[in-house]
Batch of 3 targets.
Target 1
Amino acid sequence: MADFISLKDAVKKHLKSGDMAAFEGFTHLIPHAAAHEVIRQGIDELTIVRMTPDLIYDQLVGMGLVKKMIFSYAGNPGVGLLRRVRDSIEHGWPRSIEIEEHSHAALANAYEAGAAGLPCAIFRGYLGTDLQLVNPNIKRVSCPFTGEELAAVPSIQPDVAFIHALKADRKGNVLIEGILGVQKEVVLAAKHSIVTVEEVVDVLDTHMNACILPHWTVSAICEVRGGAHPSYAQGYYGRDNKTYIDWDTIAADRDKFQAWMDENVLKQGPEVFAGRIKGLEVTS
Amino acid sequence: MSTQDFTPDEMMAIAASRALSNTDVCFVGIGAPSAACNIARLTHAPDITLIYESGTIGTAPDVLPLSIGDGELCDTALTTVPVPEMFRYWLQGGKITVGFLGAAQIDRFANINTTVVGDYNKPKVRLPGGGGAPEIASSSQQVYITMKQSTRGFVEKLDFFTSFGHGEGGDHRERMGIRTQGPTLLITDLAIWKPDPVTKEMTVVSLHPRTTKERVQQTVSWAVRFSDDLQETPAPTEEELSVLRELKARTAAAHAGNRVETA
């Protein structure tokens, strides 16, 4: 049953040191505000899962909160590399992290299997790739009917799923529109889920096949206007591409990174996000 | 009408765009492939279906997306499906005619590395990784690759096999249980390459205007094979160039800052 509580209280209540946490959102609706709250609370030794780590995992890794990262594309999309993640993998700064690397198809299948309550996902993949040599969680199974060799990976069932959505109604039913990513799957796969939303409304006012997470599938709902910035929220505000481009320079330098985190994350609260989307709002 | 006033990068994007047809269902990688696919859509292939891994099917962006999931892709798509469905039904299900990929490193059999330079556990450079590419490379009916030539990128031996091309050549794909054609076309800033029908070694079949065989060889770490019937790539037409330049200009303006100053 969804509690309407502050993001600070939701993170404190549901996420513990050493947990497996997945922050999902495929370019769209990335839960930046939630990740920043986790960083402020300094919850560490995390195993973090995400298809496309993006800036938030650069920040979590750079702040030393991560023990292990499970991922399938560790880049700043369209810009380049994730420099804090690289520094950790290449030089062990601020600490070394364990990585478990997959392809997108594998992780998408693994989330779906997690939601379906299965122990593993089976798909046609990893043919001829070296990923199966460096990741012991990629196995081969034979189809019992045709004998075809298929790939198998463990399903993903995180302790806590974090997503950002467009809106919730007052009961806590959540609406996602636009690029849907794996958000429905990760919430249904996780033990607990924290959903930040742009707004809470009386009625969701949508169509009959809309992507809805019923209130009884969600642990906590936190209203955080702008909570995906610099990612975007369909119909609310656009992607702040300039911030993604600027991040490359900030993350390139350890001191610059720490100063930025101190100023923009540690000394702030979730309410700051509403101001960050000024001028990016969708007007029509 | 063709023109000689173009850069090698422009030639690459335009040559790549020409390979696509109106009936293709194309899974688009970010970067150079995205430009080529959208030029095709804006010139000779208006009905091409462009699919991005974020789940957008039949998208027609006005500017090139910075990421594979920009809102522009969803706004202009016929429909947007969840990411697991994208990989399971549409890609694995065999609905994609062309998977269009970029690469950091490539070898003579069009195998691709986008994972690491150096040893995996002690990398010299940690690259972003495979993303959708490993399965795009094996599940699309055929694969086109576009990238600039350099000895750093065109290597004798890959540091890591992220996406399987023709393996060690010959019938290696079939022996691996892969039923699709794999890389059938490589378009660079200097040339067009196709696999030899038997050995599957990538072979230069067409040189872009103002390029020489020597220049191609200087940017490749192995001894390049040239087709006996080597062609010259037709120069870009004025229409192709203006479509590309307008697209790039709209894109640059959009990415420089989409924030509107409010009083």
Note: Chain B touches chain A through 63 residues (CB under 8 Å).
Target 2
Amino acid sequence: MAEIPEESLQLVEDTQKGKFLTFSVGKEMYAIEIKFVTEIIGIQPITEVPELPEYIKGIINLRGKIIPVMDVRIRFIKKPVEYNDRTCVIVIEVKDISIGLIVDNVSEVLSIADVDIVPPPDMNKEAENKYIKAIGKVGKEVKLILDCERLINNNDAQAISKIA
Amino acid sequence: MLISSTDNTNEDGVDILANNLDSEPMLELFVFETFELISQLENIILNNEEANSIGIQINEVFRIVHTIKGSAAMMNFNSIVSLSHSLEDVFYHIRENQPENVDYSTLVDVVLRSLDFLKNEVNAIQIGSNLDNDVSIIVQEINEFLSLLKNENGLQKPKAVSTDFNMQKNNEVPEVTGENHFKALIFFEDGCEMENIRAFTLMHNLEKVANVISYCPKDIIEDQETIEIIRSNGFEIQFRTDLCIDNVKTLLSNTLFMKDIKLETISPIKNKHSSEENDNTGRDNNQITVKQSMISVNISKLDILMDLVGELVIMQDMVIQNPELEGLALNSFNKASRQLQKVTNEIQDAVMSIRMVPLSATFQRMHRIVRDMGKKLDKDVKLEFIGEETEVDKNIIEHLSDPLIHLVRNAVDHGIESPEEREKKGKSRSGKITLEARNEGGDVWIIVRDDGKGLDRENILQKAKKQGLLKKPENELTDREIYSYIFLPGFSTKKEVDEFSGRGVGMDVVNKNIEEVGGTVRVDSSMEIGTTITIKIPLTLAIIDGMKVRVGKSIYVIPITSIKESFKAQESTVIKDEANKSEMMMIRGDCCPILRLHEFFKVQPDTTNLEEGIIIVVENESRVMCLFADELMGEQQVVVKAMPGYIKKVNGISGCAVMGSGDISLIMDVSRLLNIS
């Protein structure tokens, strides 16, 4: 029986709180909350699926489970690069949807205290900005904290479903 | 029948059940069982409507109502208890007094209304909402009917008679059978409440395997004071059974809230008269053995099993077609792997067959619809089944029942004429709707046929023209194409919207639901003779035989059943239509359009020269098309998996399949491809 007492659930929540997985795409360092991350795998053979936006590269077979993969580079309108052995797929699960994010490389799991997290500057309307939930300060560096839900549930994805 | 093991329910069981609904197995069992019983009862009632009496099945009816009442009492659902109790009163009256003039159709109405109420209640229980429906109105209605019944037949019997039916029941079966004679004294846990009902449930369960000779105290259901007696002295029951003492003990100790049980054997005498059982008991026993060999399993467990078998098939391919084995002489390996393949195929078939459910339950539900609508519209309609024992995958059945309801309703509403009209046309007064199911290759055909007035071709055509749906000149449309307009959303030839139809939603639902499970719908009709709607659905969705075709680096799977042939093209047979930029090909005198897969799926092919690649001819129903790909990669059984939810639907793709290598291929949706072009 998978009955976990309430305290231990609380504990799991606590240990995950304030923890972020950081990765790089191009020059920038991004971070996502650890609670969304299911696993990290190397790049896999991807099956192309027609009619999808360019940044959805296709689908992969994750031990019998089939999930779509998104190239974060193309999503953020950066120049696509060839995948190499540093390229990783971060499998995240948001609202019961599993999706793989293709990133240049994964660096580490960090703790960022609440006081070091600030809202993103409101100065520009760049496309990139709408996926940034907050900015985390770690030492002298800055990590861009991604809004996973927006990354997945956006107008583009709805547009796809309308085409089909 | 369900096998219930409830030994670990604790004292507050009932309270937990009432609050925490989805996770409680007892409750799930109750909901499932009660639904079964309700539909059983509905069927019996409807089947006997024609004969205008319940006849010998009154005992079965009584048993069902009683079981509903008993289990509802156990679960503390009072509205269900009081309703089934009044129903029981009615049936009791009919059974015991056998009144001569029963208004059967009113009886059916009352019973069906109560069953609807019960259904709503059980539904509410299932989704965990509050049971706030007022049961008293319907109970009163039943009571009025009962008193009417009693008055009409001048049989106002005192209530005393009704209380001792338990005794009578026992007297009816003087020839007790069974090898062993037991006496059991049962005590229930303190404070478990409703000891009398628990005792009755226990006895009811026992009756399935044993002959109850006597029990003490009597009148446990009617007399509330027996609760006290059971509490202090226990519940004593004597019975005969073929089971040995150990079995009886385990059976009895499975009872809810059982505190203590004393079981003793009374002179185990051989009963030589067991063969003299009357017919009735014999039949009952048979039924019981059938029921007990069934076990109900949660569908999600079957889904897991199905997934695992899918994985097994994939893994087997991975091992047997492992590239490292290539070029090696492996005689015994090949032999062993062939045997492995055979076994996995058998496992696959076995698992599939578990998921197969006969259509009869779905068909039975139509009785009710036909009856209700026939009454309201003043039409006399008979429903006939052919091949209702045909089995279909559980998932598909779920998608079938809505379309069938719509089709049957349409047939009653639009198809069948009123009795007067029918007489004028020289048809029999009562219309007939036939539901037919049969296996046809890898498909199941479900046919809904009526002998009504048929579809009005002109009317449909006019309506389609008005809505701007005609894509071809009028005279080029075939009858079938015209009829298929009725499946379009918002298309209704009816002028006014009424309770049953007119909004043009129904047929659209039919089409959507059937398409979802990869099926097709076809309409045939002729004026004044009737309409036939044929639904063609695949037997199962999980594993299909596919042909792998390669286009550039991508591999697609085409279901074998839709492939007609494949060949190398010759440039001379290709016709190019420069204006439309379309290509066609002559195949044995027929002209088929060519679809270049690399253009359709926008992938980089090896070749764009028709002579270098391969042409695959696919068909569905009447349409044929040539697909152009780079090469055929061979045949393979593939496990169909749905596309991830995020991607939703892609044109021309019905799902994906994991190949032996672990790669994913896309499965082509041939019928959709044909419709696009």
Note: The radius of gyration of chain A is 17 Å.
Target 3
Amino acid sequence: MNPTFTLDGRAIPFLPGQTILQAATAAGVFIPHLCYHPEFKPHGSCKLCTVKVNGRHTASCTMQAAPGMSVESETEEINGERRALTQMLFVEGNHYCPSCEKSGDCQLQATAYHLGMMSPHYDHFFPNRPVDASHPEVLLDFNRCILCSLCVRASRDVDGKNVFALSGRGIDTHLIVNAASGKLADTDFTLADKAAQVCPVGVILKKRKGFAVPIGERTYDKAPIASVAVAGEK
Amino acid sequence: MSEKKKLRVATTSLAGCFGCHMSFLDIDERLFTLLEHVDFDRSPLTDIKTVTPGTDIGIIEGGLCNAENVHVLREFRANCKVLIALGACAINGGLPAQRNSLSLPAIFDEVYHSGFGLTNSLIPNDPELPLVLDQVHPIHEVVKVDYFVPGCPPSGDAIWKVLTDLLAGKEPTLQHGLMHYD
Amino acid sequence: MTASPSLQSVNTLVADVVRRHAADPTRMVQILREVQESLDWLSPEAIDALETQLKVPRTKIEGVAGFYSFLYTEPRGRYRILFSDNITDRMLGNEALYERLCKSLWVEPGRMSEDGLVSVGRTSCTGLCDQGPAMLVNNLAIGRLSEARVDQIAELVRAGVPLAEWPAELFAVEDNIRRADILLGSDMQPGQALLAARALAPDEGLQASNMRSWREGLPTGLGGPPAILDEIKHANLRGRGGAGFTTGLKWEACRNAPLQPGQTRIIVCNADEGEPGTFKDRVLLTRQPDLVFEGMTVAAYAVGATRGFLYLRGEYRYLLDPLNAVLARRRAENLLGENILGIPGANFDIEIHLGAGAYVCGEESALIESLEGKRGTPRNRPPFPVTNGYLDQPTIVNNVETFAAAALIALKGGAWYAAIGTKHSAGTKLLSVAGDCARPGIYEYPFGVSVRQVLEDCGAGDVQAVQVSGPSGVCIAPAEFDRVIGFEDIPTAGAFTVFDNSRDMFEVARNYVHFFQHESCGFCTPCRVGTSLLKNLMDKLHRGAGSPYDFAEIEKLNLLLQSMSHCGLGHTACNPVLDTIARFRPAYERRLMQKQFTPAFDLDQALALARQMTGRDDALAHLSTHHGDHA
């Protein structure tokens, strides 16, 4: 019999080494997250998966489960904090869902729906982030980047290419590509790369494939992210 | 409920496309039910030009791209007890705000000087024309906004849900399927 | 302006630096810093050369270069001047001097002059608060700025005088020791503490212990008797960097951490003294470097480490050569190197890494990342550095002052040390006193000294507030001046900044909020975006556009930063605001000039460009800024 911890009063079994997020997902319980991806080492930067463990806030994607832990997740307080973080991500970049090909398949948007985010609340930063359309197959729209580092990790750890990295600091942190010109066309990036598949938002997009699936019939139009994520990441 | 005093509702479109108003009409026959509870004040539906002081609900479509938008928004805020931002443009500037990464001189140059087919053209300076803000802003950055209905446009069902929640004295929420940013 | 160096000379120069560092990418920060010292900036050609010679992806180089304030991927001129912008510099009038220099040199603030000669900008506190206003010229510190000094500097820049030929008195940094106790007053001779530590175990015991260690995979090298560890524990020594973790427990955890083949234990001295208002490590490293290095060696002895680092903040670049000279002397005296003091297998050496303008690297795991040549992003913890630190090896990170104290404990014993100070706070504490007082400088007191006593000693009158331990510490008001410095009451990393009644505590908090926003590493959402939002709100209040709505927003953001941030920077970024709201609320209420919500930006100003382009200035071409007062 596996050890358990409690999540919002429910006993969740876990295997040694599993994080709270992994164990919860395996048990069919959704904890919102953006920078976590089941195929990669947890990163812990977006903080959407924050829970309270024995009364203390911590990121559930990096915290290993331990027997008897008391974890709170679906509380008004924590969801309010997660909603505020989501609003921060929206105002930090330029997120215009109506003109984004990723709309309906976007984890940021779907997470905002899940959290009942009716508005971005804060004043917008409206940063100036030019797009990179140099690559023949792929468009990079940095306006939507949430700095989750999934493409960085995928390119480095799976593709062995280091096409992406973060540069800058603080609010000026931004995605860069591995070329003296700074252009994706001058890298060895291809559409077959793992890094081309992992963007949770609409930064890395396949060209000439707009609106193949109509708005309203996309992933998170059909089912909320809570059920999609639990089914896919179990 | 018919015994109760009807609520006075005003609506307008600022830097928007009137799509949210069209969607409002998509509540279809429920308009009749709505009219049992509300009277329309200033609105494209009535052609009344000013907001009556003490109006209960003001509904704003569109963001702020010029001085006139600001004047209208302030008139609504000053005269409405509750202000609702309707649709993507009112909420985050929407598509018009995609000009925010361009400088105004670059935009004016493209539109009035260097654009296709333009010769010897001038930037219009008639005081009748609303003067343009350097950036497009969502309305909550200029006045306090009480409620938001996301969507481009929000569906008629979403608008109906928020209005009926409000009429019932509840905090409006949109469940999966009604909540959309696109 | 000399012509930019040829491609060939760039390649040669980069090759020299890379060779000095054995083409080791874990030394990236040092490599980039040294390349820049020669080339004035990290040009695309220099990055090309580094990419080829280090055999690392360009993204790695640019990612690191983009993180640190003192590394430039845009040209910044032959003279790169940065004004220290701590609140104490502000109080001493740095803003007028900044403008004076910019005007005098015809440069726009923050921009390089058109001839490529000079740039003038601002930087976070440079640790010269007791002799400000201060600046850095090509990372070398100049204090006691005055109009005369600024004019002199402008003249030297205009004449293109090489920095090495500038008058030495410009670069003189005072120690200003006002009260010395066991640390600053120590006359320990180099090696004495190590001899005392060695004497704690009989020779044959030491040998046997070393053999056993080796057999059992316990600490090897200096790793010998646990006796010295016991002394540190008996001393009740706690970390001096602010958190106050028990040093003996940290050392023991490192000592007990398993080693993988090829690994060693690591001793790191954290001299990244970036907390605004703190400068005591600068003075300790100037006056008692042997005490610090000996303490590190004692730690190596206690846990069996063979490698040590001093991570020195980039602002203290001028200390690098003198400190390296001390290390060289200690090697010559067999106090570092192989078989230290003739103890077989006692191998330990220390090298100095310089930071490059990133406060967050004072956080121990971010510091380790930086030591490994990466962006200074705090790690996820656990695991902790004591088990998985530098290059995944068991690592002790302690403050400069902690190591100095450890040396004294080795020399004089734990019981002697524990008798000094208070029950819960053994020993002494160095305070960096600055701000509104007659005698700013370093004061070393036994723990338990009251705030009132310190204020009296430093000649502070008419005091409104004291910021203890810098912006991430606490701000206290006169009613609390009988509180004492110590872990049981007011713990501190050392800053003690005094504000008299002429100061606006809102502006103090706003300066600190700007600091945290500038220094946020950008890794986690709440701190990256939250510190910017907080800065914008404080600036909004400053401009007179604040309403009670904004005040409520500030309070909500504070809570969010505290609960959701990744590391201490985000957790404490709201401290100066929370403290000043609690104690100096009128300073905020004075700022809430609007009853109703008012935009953060100036609406009329937002029409200025269009007015200019249309030539309009009619009534409809203007907007009143504040809600409610429109026509």
Note: The beta strands of chain B are 7-13, 38-40, 55-61, 64-66, 80-86, 132-137, 147-149.
